[in-house]
Structure formats: structure tokens, C-alpha cells
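Supplementary Methods, section 5.1.

A reviewer requested that the exact input to the structure prediction be made available. We therefore reproduce it here, unchanged from the version used in the analyses.
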Amino acid sequence: MLTTTAQGIGLKMPTVTNAGEEKNEQSRLSAFVGAIAVSDLVKSTLGPKGMDKILQPMSDEGGNNKIQITNDGATILNHVYVDNGAAKILIDISKTQDQAVGDGTTTVAVLAGELLKEAENLINKKIHPQIIISGFRKARDAAKEVLLKQAFNDYSDKDKYYNDLINIAKTTLSSKLVTHEKEKFSKMVVDAVLRLGENPSLDLIHLIKKLGGTLSDSYLDDGFILEKSISVGCPKEKTNPKILIANTPMDYDKIKIYGSRVNVNSVEKFSEIEQAEKDKMKNKVDKILAYGCDIFINRQLIYNYPEQLMADKGIMVIEHADFDGVERLAAVTGGEIYSTFDTPDKAVLGSCEKVEEIMIGEDKVIKFTGCKNPKACTIILRGASAHLLEEAERSLHDALCVITETVKSHNLIYGGGYTEMKMALEVENLAKQEKGKESLCIESFAKALRQIPTIICDNAGLDSSEIIANLKKEINDGSTTAGIDVNKGAVGDMKELGIFECLKVKEQALLSACEAAEMIIRVDMTFTAPPRQRTDENSRPC
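The structure derived from this sequence is encoded cell-by-cell as follows.
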């Protein structure tokens, strides 16, 4: 039991039952151990030869024990339950990295973990946490400056710029499950993003997963594909149609009375109530028909009676379209989503050249060709299992995000551990110019940066000590393109190999990892307490 008394004013603070606290070294050790454990968890997935993890949740009452196989850092950490505060910080920065730039989720967690390992060694040498933080900040600024200097772009040469984007996509997909088909998927991803122009929005790129075939059967389709089927009795094809998109209830042509009792003295009276419901629905359908649409798409269910009324008028009816599909469809066809139908003269309907029902694998889908917004496209993923398709979707999403960020900034850097080693060497030079304990902290920052290429080598089964030493010598000798060639197990030319990365991804990972490490290093006390138990005094009647 923990009881705190406010000194000097004679007030007794509320008592917290079963609370605990950790102070100073114990608290700091607990934070470091939790964060480093999370970092070590995803370390083996880093690099083109990284390994995958099986995520298998505990079976619940319904027997739902669906597994996932992935090497995506954010996905892995998102499914790991932790009760350590510092570990949760690393998980949060991995999620933030995924949301901000889409890739580098493993790098940011591993780099933060390596920084904390170095910080732990410094604290054991009796260096104060604030001195460590000050040194890390100086090292971070120097590393960021080097990183920005290494950036380049070939935006003025369209053909070379296109090849650079292809190489960035290949580098991103090299560590993914689809690495054996990276040539095909890289071109698919780059073509999809370049359609969107200088300010791409991934909302216009739709990914569809369909079982059957192999990954090589996947393809990029112009236009938009809706994973629904056309209602029975409706036309299966429309040319140059007017499309009305709605989110409105169309399922009350039968009596639905909840929580009430209706007394009638004859079946005729009951049928009169039912007929009134039908008339109400017919009036709503008449209002919809006044819009002069050829296709009616509703997010909610459509019962048989209104569906029949529309089919009799030759309208193509599509019901229960998912909300994301409706939102995306409105964007690509240029229409608006309606929930009421009182102003047909002010309506903005969608349009396209052709709408038809097609088959993908064993499933029927609806294809919208020649949409008003020509930037829209759909990537159809084929695969032999659901686990394969889910991982392929995550891989393509990462590549799409990276290419999108590159198109926005046009800046890229060489991969293969070159930038980390270059930053480490510059930070080491800074450490030689500093005095006092901060020089030790700056030097430790450089050691943490060097761990990234070291881990890439270790995960590929290579001799990391020799390769890192050779890479360091190449860069010191003036090479600006040296990096790790994991296929040959030696130092290679990243420019010739086409191993490029997006500057924004690397910069975000560096800054996020430093901020997370700094936040954990500052901790000197941890309070834990269970939720307050409900008692008769604080319970409320339902």
C-alpha cells in the first residue's frame, strides 16, 4: 500500500492500493530491458535476407486462431502484447513510421534499440542521462546533415528518373515475400503511382486479393473494380451511364416494429400497415428514378421490392457496397454520395465509359472503365493462399508508400548500408572534436549507426566484421557508392546494382529512433497501479 502525505500543509493524499514504484537504476534498467527486447524481436527481419515471423494469437471461444506470416516490423509489433512502458514507446514509433512513410518500421525499432544499448553502457560508466542526451542530439544533427548531403535526384531526365523509381521499388520489395517477382511488382507499383501526378493520393489505387493462380498472375488494371455483383434481373453492362451513389436505407418495405405492440382485429388491418410501408418505399424509389440515373449503387442493403422496381426501369442495381469502395468510387467517377433525394435538379452524378461484370478467378466483380478521373487504377493480386495474399498486400502497400514519398520529394540515396556507415564516420569525426564526456556519447551514437549494416550482414549469414571493415575503408578512400552486396557477400557498387532508397524514409527513421531513445533515457522512476476496484460506494445502478 502506497500512502503519500503532502508535506507542510497537513493534507493526506488518496491511498493507492496495490501500487508499486521503481526508482533510479531499477526503473532505468527495466525500461532499457523492455525496449531492447522489442528491438531484438524484429532484428532478424532486417535486410534483404531477413527472416519471417509467424503471428499466432491465442484461440478464443469462437476458435478464431488465424495466423499471419510476415517480416513487416509494424505488423509484428502491432500483434505483440507488452506491459513494459518503454517497449510500448518503440511499438508506437514503429506504427508512426508506418503511417508517415510506409516503410522503415524495422529500421527505426532496431536503431532505437541499439542507441539504448549504448546508453546503458554509458550509464554504467556513471555518465549522467542528460549528458548522454546532449551528446546524442549533437550526433543526430551531424548525421542528419550528412544524410541530406548524400541525397540526389534525376528528376530532369524522365527516363533515368523512372529507372530510379523502379530501383527504389525493387530495393523495398527485396526484403519482402514477393522478392522473386520484384521486377513485375516494381513496374506495377511505379506505373500506378505515376498515374497520380505530382501529388499522389493512394486512395485512388485499389488493391484486390483473389485466391487462385500464382503471384506472377497479378496485374495492374486501368479504372476501378468493385468487389460486388449486379443484382438479379438487372442489365449486366452499361455504356456511358449516369451513376447515382447513395448511402441510404432501402430495407423497410416490410413491417419492422421494435419494442412496441400493435393490436389489430383483422388480417386486413395488418395488410394495410404493410401496404403503407410498401407505398413509403415506392415513393422513395420514385424520387431516386427522378434523378435519371442508369446505375444505382447503395452502401446499404436493398430489399427485393425496391430492387424489382428499379430493375423494371432498366436500372443496374448494386447493393451493400463497402464504405471504402463507395468513397473511392465517388472519387474516381466524379459523383457525390447521397442519403436523401429531394433535389434531383442539383444532383452531381458519376460517369464513366463502360460498366460491366467480369470474372476474376472464381468470383464476379464489376469493372468501371474510362472513369472521369483517369488516375484511378486497381492492382489485382493472385496467390495460392490467403496468408500469401495478405503478406503480398502489405509488401505492395510499403512499396506504394515509398514511391509516393519519393515522387513528392524526388530525393533518393544509396542503400546497402552506405548511408549508415557514412553517417557513422562523420559522427566519429565529430566525437574527436568534442571535449569531455559528450565525446564518448557521440562515439556511442556512431557505434549504434554501424550496427544497421552489421545486422544486415549477420542476417544474410555473412562475415560482418570483414565486410564492415572493407566498407569503412572504401568510404574513407572516397567512394560515394559503396555498399553491401549480400548476394556476393562483399562490398559492391550501389549505383551499378541499382540499390536506392527514399531519403524521407531514412530521415524519418533516424529522427524517430533518436526521439524514442531520448524519451526512455530520461526516465528515472516508474509507477504502476491496477485500475481502481469498483465498490458499493462508487458503483452506479445500471
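The radius of gyration is 30 Å. These observations are discussed further in the main text.
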